[in-house]
Structure formats: structure tokens, C-alpha cells
What we know:
Blueprint: H1 2-11, E1 27-33, E2 36-37, E3 51-52, E4 55-61, E5 65-69, H2 75-87, E6 91-96, H3 108-114, E7 119-122, H4 124-130, H5 136-145, E8 158-159, E9 164-167, E10 170-178, E11 185-190, E12 195-197, E13 203-204, H6 215-229, E14 235-237, E15 240-241, H7 250-268, H8 272-282, H9 291-295
Parallel strand pairs: 5-6, 6-7, 7-8, 12-14, 13-15
Antiparallel strand pairs: 1-4, 2-3, 4-5, 9-10, 10-11, 11-12
Amino acid sequence: MDGxxxxxxxxxxxxxxxxxxxxxxxxxxxxxxxxxxxxxxxPKPFGxxxxxxxxxxxxxxxENDAVLVDAMTTVAEAEALAAWIALHNRNLETIYITHAHFxxxxxxxxxxxxxxxxxxxxxxxxxxxxxxxxxxxxERLARRMFPGQVATNLVAPEAYEQDTFxxxxxxxxxxxxxxxxxPDSTSLYVPSIGLIVAGDVVYNQCRMxxxxxxxxxxxxxxxxLDRLAALNPKTVVAxxxxxxxxxxxxxxxxxxxxxxxxxxVQKSATSDQDLFDQMTALYPDWVANQSWLMFGFxxx
Length: 300
């Protein structure tokens, strides 16, 4: 008996732990909400009437399940996004928020009501930076600028501590990028399909929010763009883009070029309007020609 027991123990084969196996190829679809008017005064007396730039949310989906990246601003945008997601006939597992600007997550509560089985996540640093957007002064500012358009119940995502999560066996990698147009920015990289959902690290034919940057922070931003380019992505989705613009990797270099041009022109411009006019001339076809994007968000 003892010998048999020993033989069984000696021949016991350990069961290997297997990594998730991808069941199907992933696909991607991008929802772009057009620019929207804001109530208030422009920070400078030039540029277009006060408005917000076009914004994107991205659906990554497999055969059965899906992940959404970013959640829009207003009730109308979030409801339209929810209806669009439903057309894909997938189970929405995860909503990932790339950074702490409220235009990317004030619509989250609307989406969670429509898809109660989804979990909403962001990095701990992003979640910490978001807390300002739930303070009474910032909520009042948002409701004043978008009267009757901001959800009554504003919801925060959960802190997610890991660097990756999965969708049908495919890894989605969180790239923490620090200070770009906001603190603690991130992008999401899906290597199996060569996709980067860049949040506000990348802009696509849309004037960029440099009003809260410095020469030093723009150097950091450029370094982050170089990190994304080194991944050789096939598809790059910007957080803000001109409606209809292709989601091309060229947007990374275009974003970098805008930052370099802004640094160069800012040094020689004779006034704020001269700086604005020179950048307008350099990028005549880019949308959202707002002075606040260059000189700071109104009311802050």
C-alpha cells in the first residue's frame, strides 16, 4: 500500500497554468460626436464662438464581448453612444477612461444605466486627478457651460491597479504617459490588431489644448508621442478629431508637429493674437479654432 501510494505521488503530473487563448480577431469602431456650443465668454476676443471640440469614444469588440474607451460629456452624447454600442450586439464588459478631463467621463453614469453589467475603470492616478471634476465649483462650471445637458448623477470609475486587462483572450495594455494636455494621461494599446486608443495624447486634425501646458510639459508630451510611434501601430484613435478624419498613425506625427510649431511660434509672436493667427495659418483645415484651447479653459 505504501509503495503504491509512493508510486502514485511520484508519477503525479502538475497541471500547467495556461494563458488566455484568443478566441477571435478583434475589431474596432469609433464614435465621433461633433463640436458643441458652450455658454460663456471667450478668453480672448478672437477665434470662433465659444464651443467644445469634437470628441471620440472607441468600441473594441470580439465575437461576443466589447470594451469601450471613454464615455462622452453630455446626456445626449452618452445616450447616442449607448444606442450606437447596442447596434453592435455585444456584451459590454469594460469601460476604460483614459484621463481626467470631464469631457471624457461625465457621460459614464448614463452608460452604466444602459449597460449595468459593465465595469468602469481608470488608473489610480487618473482617478485621483478626476476628483476635482466632482467638486461643486467644477460641476457648477460644467452645468453653466452646458445648461440642461450634464447628467444629474455623475459617476466615477473604479481604480484599476494592473497594467493590462483582456478581451476574449486578447491583452489590452494601459500605457501611463504622465502629463500631456492633462495630468496622468494614458493610452490603451491592443497589440494583436496594432491599435492605439490614445485619449488626448494624440489629436487628429483638431486644434489642440495647449492652454494648460508649459515648454517643459510639451517636451514630455513629445517624448510620449515618440513612445507611441515606436510601437508601429496600424490604427491610432485620437481623443479629439475632425469628424470623418481617418484613424491613421500619421496623427501621432501631426500632433508632434503642432507642438513643435507652437513652441517655435510662441517664442517670436508679438502678441497673443499674433500667436493665434500664425497657428491658424499653419493649420487652416483643422477644426475647433478656439482661443481657449490655446490660452486656457474659460472660467478656470
